Structure to design on (102 residues):
């Protein structure tokens, strides 16, 4: 018969695996109602306007986003998706071209 000391590493390894299981992907992807979910629909009237802090705040509030990101032509941006972020795409004259969430 094996001693308890010899079985301890095996028991710890099995217990650790059982307690660190993550929820299924569908559970992780479900947003909470107050997560600052962005909706860029309905911002078309702001397209063509010059980029400034006031426009950014207005667009963020109307989209229900928590944050904004200004994207200029040729600018390198991360590809991470954030459901609470409003991306404001600008043209070469610093005018708003389009809005996208993420």
């Amino acid at each position: 018969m094996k001693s308890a000391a010899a079985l301890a590493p095996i028991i710890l390894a099995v217990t650790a695996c059982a307690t660190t299981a993550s929820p299924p992907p569908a559970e992780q992807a479900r947003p909470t109602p107050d997560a600052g979910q962005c909706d860029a629909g309905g911002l078309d009237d702001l397209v063509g306007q010059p980029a400034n802090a006031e426009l950014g705040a207005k667009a963020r509030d109307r989209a229900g986003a928590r944050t904004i990101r200004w994207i200029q032509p040729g600018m390198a941006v991360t590809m991470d998706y954030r459901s609470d972020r409003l991306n404001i795409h600008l043209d070469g004259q610093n005018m708003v071209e389009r809005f996208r969430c993420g």
